[in-house]
Write a structure and sequence with these properties.
By secondary structure, the chain is α+β, with helices and mostly antiparallel strands. It has 16 helices and 16 strands. The strands form four sheets. A five-stranded mixed sheet has the order 3-2-1-4-5, sandwiched between helices. Helix 4 packs parallel to helix 6 and helix 11 runs antiparallel to helix 16. The longest helix has 18 residues. The chain starts with a strand and ends in a 10-residue tail after the last strand.
Amino acid sequence: MYAILDIETTGGKYNEEGITEIAIYKFDGHQITDQFISLVNPEKPIQPFVVNLTGINNEMLRNAPKFYEVAKRIVEITTDCVIVAHNAKFDYRILRTEFRRLGFEFERRSLCTVELSKKLIPGQESYSLGKLVRALGIPLSDRHRATGDAQATVKLFKMLLAKNLSKDILKDSVRAEPKRHLDSKLVNMLEDLPGITGVYYLHDEDGEILYIGKSKNIKKRVNQHFTNEHHKSRQMQKEVASVSFEATGNELIALLKENQEIKHNKPKYNKALKRNVFSHALYYFTDEKGYINFKIGKAGKPNSITTFSSLKRAKNVLERWVEEYELCKRLCGLEKGNRNCFNYSIKTCHGACVDEESADNYNERSRELITNHSYSRQNMIVIDRGRDIDEKSALLVEDGEFKGVGYFNLNHQVNHLDIIRSIITPMQNDRDAQHIIQSYLRRNKRLKIIDLKPEERPSDL
């Protein structure tokens, strides 16, 4: 659990500042579960330059509660939480100073989003909150006020959690959680889980990841792990001490994250990916008469159009494409021989197999299939559901290479490719990721896909 906060002060000498405004959002890694926002009477004048910066003046604070009147609420909302702030050293120091004046030692673990951003989003021109969130497409209102800055920090931290592939932040948070009693631990863990789409992580008592999985309903899937009588599941049930999860909003990102994070983290109970699970691919070549031919073969050779999980699946999909694009079954490798194909006899093949249709006409439809189902040279953005109602996800492919995924707020116009690149969490462009994307696009025809030429920029997502 995290307490994401921002503090405004009077300014002045080091350790003599007073708090004028505080905003704290209790955040469970997915959503805000509690909040505390208040002006504070610092019992000392505010420096003039701070008044100009924040708009908070002495008159506004005349009837505001003094720090000792809000101290109990601050302790309550931050208990068992990691303090998160942009330049956390400053905010944490100010809080501890105020509590020391009351004779109370305030101690919490802390995370700084400036330091995390430099590690996880390198190469930014500036890491000040205003300039950084603007570059990342995160909306920010009431700059230099505690509420606006804290809300922006919540959104930034949510993005950093998604970009933290090694899950160091997650593991540290799990270690900080109080340990549950073993008797009812599985029931307690299930109660905390939502029925949403995402990736889930089973941890041992040290916070290390035992197992990574994905599901359209995390709670239901984890329940299956906890009730399974298989030897492996029973052993895992004994070792698991906590469950964490990451909402993805849609199945495509869940599949991609599961694929990459299993390979990266190598959890104890995930099977090692010793072989590629996508065994077959579709290839094409031009025969001596100039016709484009399609052929199903073993995956792994260069210049494949798309891949499939089995030979049967490949044939089924190709049969469907033969009908959709009005192609010749013999030129697609689905029939043998050198006479006309069956589809020619029922008038759905235009006669390429018996030279009645010209190669130019036939190849036009063949190239349409290749273009629609291969992204070897494509530039595109795939838009899908986000984690919240006011959010969308973006998947970026540039020059046929899968770059990664990210999220953006519907109220913020993402109108430049550089902004898309900055919100994207980079991911591995391997064969598994390529198949996952192509297979998902085949099954989900209603997705919004923005095709980009190299010189184009997205105008309105």
